Description:
61% helix
Amino acid sequence: MKTRKRDIGGLLYGVAALGLFGALAWAERRRALRAETDDKGTRAVRNLAVAGVTAVATQLAERPLVAPLSRRAERRRVGLTYWLQRRTGISDGARDALAVLLMDYTLYVWHVLAHRVPLLYRFHQVHHSDLDLDASTALRFHFGEFVVGAPYRAAQVALIGVSPRALTAWQRLTSLSVLFHHSNVRLPVEVERLAALVITTPRLHGIHHSIVRDEQDSNWSSGLTLWDRLHGTYRANVHQDDIEIGVADHRDPADVTLPRVLAMPFAEAPTGRRPDGTVPTRDEPRPPRRRLVP
Length: 294
Ligand SMILES: [Zn+2]
């Protein structure tokens, strides 16, 4: 019975994820948020190839570490959320919801580290080096980022005390959220302002993918915008038309072919400068930082 329930849950998630990806890809063609600079089809194939390698690496490096730790947390009732449940008597549902919330927060912290720690940024830069930002970028993570991140993920699960049910829920919710906010879909700005009160949206994440360092150092949340708001890293005041997507070091499509992208973390260290040596900046006066602009 339990297996059957899990199968149906997995099936529903699969349908939701594919459906969302298809709907976003369709909407991106009809109502693009930002003008595209590179060929969409070529980028999609490349990003899917990067994702395929990462999916294999995740199965080999992360899953064997994380899944047993989650089962152990449940079996031995250890970790922060189980401890809290013993102290306060909260329900299993509330404990799992808290675990999902804390996974979302600690993923925010990981994302900050992925930008701040030079070794981690070598891998994370691959994700940012996409010259356009759309739903396929959501799949473009270098396998090395997941391999070096596996111990962190393991620590998250063990310390928070994430049950298998909570882990699956977090993985599914996060993947849907990541697909959504990477998409290049123009939503009415009023709708996006409302959504941004709760979750990261395409315009917010577009600012995170800006070539300007100061803008890249904002909107690190992958789920709730609460974490960016709490840490003062929420930023909504950059017009999408003004954003140049990507990283300063790699501006030429010939620089971001599949072999180049896979080798990127092992090539020269990122400099934060364009090939001509200049550092991207933005000087114009801005609206208030939290004001979401079109
Ligand atoms: Zn990032």
